[in-house]
Amino acid sequence: MSVDTATVAKIASLARIKVSEQELEAMVPELNGILAWVEQLGEVDTSGVEPMTAVIPNTLRLRDDVIDADPLTGGNRRDAVLANAPAAEHGFFGVPKVIE
Description:
Layout: H1 5-14, H2 21-42, H3 78-82, E1 88-89, E2 92-93
Antiparallel strand pairs: 1-2
């Protein structure tokens, strides 16, 4: 695939980029080189390569999920939290209606 000056002008127009005629002529070989490189990448055989998310192996360090582990931030403190609410309704924060 190759691009010409009209294609580069259309791409610049779609991207809302102001490009002069001289810059258009300079962009044509650059974009053709990029497209040739992408086509060359498509020729690489990757059938035996496993997909990966990172170059080095990563594992998530998870903590144990313990309920009420910390007395200040643990669970079962609904009444203490709702004591600070300006309006509590049925055990939840009361908020103004925004959808009619």
